[in-house]
């Protein structure tokens, strides 16, 4: 039975609501209402692993190690700034000066869900054979502490260190439940790394939605282009990248909404979980066809840009 069920997608494709429904199963654990991000984000675990297996040279290791440490601690420790007046003031100031004014990973606080995260991190450093020494190189950042790190492990031991780190992360979050379900957008980009580190302990589904609806939803987000044509090209590039992972199973959001019991059974069968009664009342089809509220010229532009995808996934 897979220990990790990964629900991937383009963002705004329905991954969150599907995760929430799947997590009703008594054998499925999840972090309610948010994404943990430490596995798939820039400088996260899998990004760090991919970097080292590609080029473990000393300077690259030192730079990558520092970025990973920063990301790990930011995700696990969260921010002292919470939603409220302070948050909204920071957001306003950031908008005026076109700068990010809110703390990194605000509101994530992964340490609430992974209570032994410090121990896990320290054990990872030991497994990696990470050592510190006083030094710097010509590309070191201004005012950076003159301290560098290197690893004493070879390729096989490095892979094993990352395998243990990912396993401890999964086991720590899922607690006593057999399966952890996560909905990290773009996680399919790391499908190869998931396979290398977890093998059959990992299962991934990619949520497909009418790409025109994805654009109509994404243009209101802070992380995507706000202009329709630019956003369409952004989403198209993600869908084109997904075509390079043919062994990842697909679930169409529209089919999930129309027949949730059948789709849920398909997912549970793939991870060897018995079906059970779930509450599907949160599902509705109000967001299907959302793109039709756009101007006719924009709809034609979307039809042109997504010609291949609309045909491939049956949205013509």
Briefly characterize the structure.
47% of the residues lie in helices and 10% in strands. The protein is of the alpha/beta class and 316 residues long.
What does this structure look like?
- The chain is an alpha/beta fold.
- It folds into two domains: 1-27 and 177-316, P-loop containing nucleotide triphosphate hydrolases (Rossmann fold), CATH 3.40.50.300; 37-176, no CATH class.
- It has 13 helices and seven strands.
- Strands 2-5-1-6-7 form a five-stranded parallel sheet, sandwiched between helices. A two-stranded antiparallel ribbon has the order 3-4.
- Helix 2 packs antiparallel against helix 3.
- It is globular, with a radius of gyration of 21 Å.
- It starts with a strand and ends with a helix.
- The mean pLDDT is 93.
Top keywords for this entry?
about 10% strand; Rossmann fold; about 325 residues; alpha/beta; 13 helices; five-stranded parallel beta sheet; two-stranded antiparallel ribbon
Query: Main beta sheet, described?
Result: 5 strands, parallel
Q: Strand arrangement, largest sheet? A: 2-5-1-6-7
Q: What would you give as the CATH superfamily of the largest domain?
A: P-loop containing nucleotide triphosphate hydrolases
Number of domains: 2
Over all CA atoms, what is the radius of gyration?
21 Å
* CATH level-two architecture of the largest domain: 3-Layer(aba) Sandwich
